[in-house]
Amino acid sequence: MARSTTHLQEETHRQSLEDPESFWGRQADLLHWHQKPSAVLRRSQKTLKQSGVTHSSWSWFPGGEISTCYNCIDRHVLAGRGNEPAIFWDSPVTNTKETLTYSQLLDEVEVLAGALREEGVRKGDVVLIYMPMIPAALVGILAASRLGAIHCVVFGGFAPAALAQRIDASRPVAILTASCGIEGAKGPAPYKPLVQEALRLSTHKPQRVIIWQRDQVRWGPTRRSEGERTWQSLVKSCRARNVRASCVPVASTDPVYIIHTSGTTGSPKGVLRDAAGHAVGLQLSIRYLFDIHGPGDVVFTASDIGWVVGHSYIIYAPLLAGAATVLYEGKPVGTPDASAFWRIVEEYGVTALSTAPTALRAIKRDDPDNLGFKKIGARGGLRSLRGLFLAGERSEPAIISAYQALLDEYAAPASQGGAHVVDNWWSTETGSPISGRAMFPQVPSAEATDTDRTRQVPPSPIPIKPGSAGKPMPGFDVRVVDDNGKELPRGETGNIVMGLPLAPTAFRSLWQEDERFYNGYLKRFQGEWVDTGDSGFIDADGYVNIMSRNDDVLNVSAHRLSSGALEQAITSHPLVAEACVVGVPDALKGQLPFAFVTLKTHPHPTSAAPDRSLEAEIQSLVRSQVGAIATLGGIVQGRGMIPKTRSGKTLRRVLRELVENAARGEPDKELNVPSTVEDAGVVLVAREKVREYWGARRGEARAKL
Ligand code: AMP
C-alpha cells in the first residue's frame, strides 16, 4: 500500500488556503471579541483615487470589534492566571532584573492608559514610542492599544533625522520616550538632544512628549509649555486618584499599529497592521510554529521592540498565549560576554529563543568553539530549550547544522520531542513568518488547546533542510514566478510572490499611501501576486529557499546570480567567517560579482587582497558550487568592513555603491548611507579597503603593460 508522505504542516497549509473561512474562523474562536465578526473573510475590489487603478483587496473578520490589550492581559487575569509571570526584564547594561506578573502588568497598563487619556490620547490617535528596552516601553505600547490608539514604535537607536521623518509620516498626538538608552557596553546615550532635535526638524508637532526618567541619565526639568511631561509623575497622580482606563475595542480592520520598514531599500514605508488579523494570526503562529502555549513557556526574542520581530514575538504573541517574555536590554556579545543568550536560557527556563543569524555569527567570532554554550549545556542549563528560531536574513547551512548539533546534545531531550533550529522567513509586511518548520504541527482549537499541553511528545516538525526556510505557513500562498508572473517549475530560481489574500497578520496597505502599496507590491505582477522582493526557489519537496533580495540579484552575462548563493559558496571555505557579494559594472558581462570577505583569523599586516592561494581556493569553491559564470571579479579582505543595519541586515547597497564608485574612478564620491546603519565607521573601513584594492589593481595593470 502506498504510504502518504504528506506531513501535517502541508495538510494544514492546504486547508488554510482551500477553506480560509473555516480555518481562520476556528482560530478566531480562541480570542475574546467585544463584537463577533459578521464574516471571516471578505474579498473586494479597491479603486485607487489618484491613478483610478482597481485591484483585488480583502478584509479579515469584518464587522468584529476586538481589543488586543484585553486579549494580551485582562483575559489571563480574569481566568485566574494573574500571578503567572508576563515579563522578565533582564538588563545587564544597568545590572537590573525585574519580573512583572500579568496582574502587575494589568495594573501598570490600566493606570498609564488612564494618564494618556487625560493627556488627550483618544481612539484612532497615533502614539509614537521611542524607547529603550525597558518594561515601561511595553507598558506604553499596551496602554496605547488599551485606548484603541495606534502605536508607532521607532527604534530607540535612530538618529534625529530618521525620527523626524517618522514623526512627520505618522503625525502622533503624543510621543512616549525615556531620558536615555543604553547601547551595549558603550554606556548611556541621552535621548533629550535626539528627541528635541527631531522635533525641531519635523513639521508635525505632537501635543505631548512623555518622558520616562531613568537613573543613569536624567532628562532634566521638563518644559511644560512645550508639552513635556514626566511619565512617573503622571502615573503617580493617576494612581493617587485611582484613574484607570478600561479597554476600548476597535473594529477588526482598524490598525493596531504602524511600523516603518527597516529601510534597506528606499524611504521607509508605514506598514499597517489590522487589529483582528494580527491577534488571530499571532496566536496561531506562537502555538503552531513556536510551540508556545501558555503559562510555563518562556519566550526570549533577542531583537528590539523597534522591529517587527520585536512587536510580534517580544510583545504580542507571547502575551496572547499567556506565556512569559524576556525583555533583554543587552547585546549578544560584550554585555558582558558571548554567553549572554545561553545564560538567559538557563536563568529563565527559556523554551523558544529567536534571533538573527548575525547574532550567532557575532557569538561565533567571540567564542569560536561555543564554549559558553557547552559549559551551560553540560550542567543541564539548556534543557528547557525546544526551538532556536532564526530570521531576518538567510542562514547559511553551516550555521544551521552547527546549532542543530549543539541543540541535539544539550537542549530539550529527544524524549520530550527534542530541540530544533527553525529558519523562518518573513518581513515587516507579513507580520509573522511566511515559511518555517511548525514545531507543533497541530492546529489549536477551542476544544483541543488544554489537552494538547498534557501530551508528552509533540508531533515532529518537517525534517530540517539546512539552507531552506522550511515550508509555507498557514494562509501564505507562496509561488515562484518569472518576470512575467508565470509560475516556474520546482527547483527553478525566480521571483518569490504570494497569492491573495495574504494571511491575517499581513498588511493590506500602507499608512495613508494606497497608491504606493499598489505600486510597490502589486503592480509588478498586474495585481495577481504580491511581490515579496525576494528571489529563490521551491525545491522538489516543497521547501522554500530564499536566496537574495531582488535588488541583490546580480546579472552576469544575462544569468541571474543570487548574492546569497555566492556568499554560501565563499563561506564554505574554512578560513572565511563572513562574506558579502555585490555586483561591479563590467563592460562585457554587465556585472561581475565582487566579494568582501572577513577571515576567521587575519594575517598581519592585512592587505586588502587575499594571498594568491586563498584567492584561488575561494574562486574554485565559487566555480564548483555556483558555476564558472560566477567567477569573482575581485575579493577584498578585511575586518569590520561589512556594514549592517541596526536589525542585522547586510547593507549590500552601500558596498555596491562603494565598488561602483571605485570602478568609475570616483572612490571619494559621497555615499547614500541609510540612517539605519549600525556603525557608520564600518563604511569608512570598507571605503579604505576598496581604495587600497583598486590602487593596487591599477598598479598591477600598469605592470602588465
Ligand atoms: P524586514 O522587513 O526588514 O524584516 O526584511 C524582510 C526581508 O528580510 C525579507 O524580504 C528577506 O529578504 C529577509 N529575510 C527575512 N527572514 C529571512 C530568512 N529566514 N531567510 C532569508 N531571508 C530572510
TrEMBL record:
- Superkingdom assignment: Eukaryota
Q: Where is this region: Disordered?
A: 447-475
Q: Where is the Acetyl-coenzyme A synthetase N-terminal domain?
A: 10-72
InterPro entries, sorted? ACAS_N (IPR032387), AMP-bd_C (IPR025110), AMP-bd_C_sf (IPR045851), AMP-binding_CS (IPR020845), AMP-dep_synth/lig_dom (IPR000873), ANL_N_sf (IPR042099)
- Locate the AMP-dependent synthetase/ligase domain: which residues? 79-499
- Domain AMP-binding enzyme C-terminal stretches: 566-649
User: What Pfam families does the record tag this protein with?
Assistant: ACAS_N, AMP-binding, AMP-binding_C
What are the GO MF terms of this UniProt record?
propionate-CoA ligase activity
| Entry-linked SUPFAM superfamilies | Acetyl-CoA synthetase-like
Q: Which family does it belong to?
A: Belongs to the ATP-dependent AMP-binding enzyme family.
Put simply, this protein is called AMP-binding enzyme
Which source organism does the UniProt entry give? Sodiomyces alkalinus (strain CBS 110278 / VKM F-3762 / F11) (Alkaliphilic filamentous fungus)
